[in-house]
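Problem: given the chain below (301 residues), write out its structure.
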Amino acid sequence: MKSIITGEDEVRVGVNLLDNAGEEHGIEMEFDGEIKHHQSEAYADNPRFRTREECEHVDQARRFAKWQVYRERGYDTVPPLENPDRLTAALLAIADLSSDTFQAQFGELERRLARHYDDGPVELPFPNADPDDAIIYQQDVYLEPDPVEHDPPVLEQFLSRFDGDPDTPVARRASELTTQDRDDLGFEVEAVSGIHTVHNDGQGTERRDHGEQPLDRDPDARVELMAFDTDSVDSFHHYVVSNLAYQIRDRFLLMGQAPPTAFRAQGWGTYRGFQCQKFCSLYEEYWSSEADITSWEPWTE
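Solution.
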């Protein structure tokens, strides 16, 4: 993926981009990230007439263009829940929580997951839903201070300390920050949302239920977990931190980029990442801890 910012006026920024298949894109977006123009002669304008891989090349180009404008021009063009800087800040904030505070904020999420594997009833907000279907539980995280106001960016500061060490669990790396690191990268969980639920019956029907939002602004991150046996992990706290690390991995992959070395690890990240990795040949199954990964580069199929 190669791109340059071609210009900017009082309402829009323009980006010219070559995707991983070598095809050119011209993209214009407003300062909030809304894309107002996207032209590429290589792909049909109507997504119905593109292959799954062609659609993904188009989507990768749009995501990467937003990331470049955000990083180079400072506009908040990346959707908050997809921004690796916000995700890194959430990872650090949650890793730093005491056990009691973590339980107060995420204990209900753990209990909802555990009910799939104990003798208690599974609480589903959808009629006729089978607890054995694909069930995703989500919980939004609100941070303070604002992660996108840091310079250098939060992710770059984190990588300057830990890049090149993918085999060390990210929760342990975060816990090893020095006092000075914590002054530079100090974030707190201001609030968490209620539990959201995504249900997929495997037959093309997807339903969503949204929990309560405590604040009148966009959250900074969203923990996303497929129903699993919480007794299978040593620490649910560390598992949540790792989920955010895998989300950072997914966000780079979905921009057509190899993730930073520190985040090249396998495990469940995002529901969107899972769908892309499962059904598009541009990706391997990074979501699976048992998959045999041959490359971290989401290049051409």
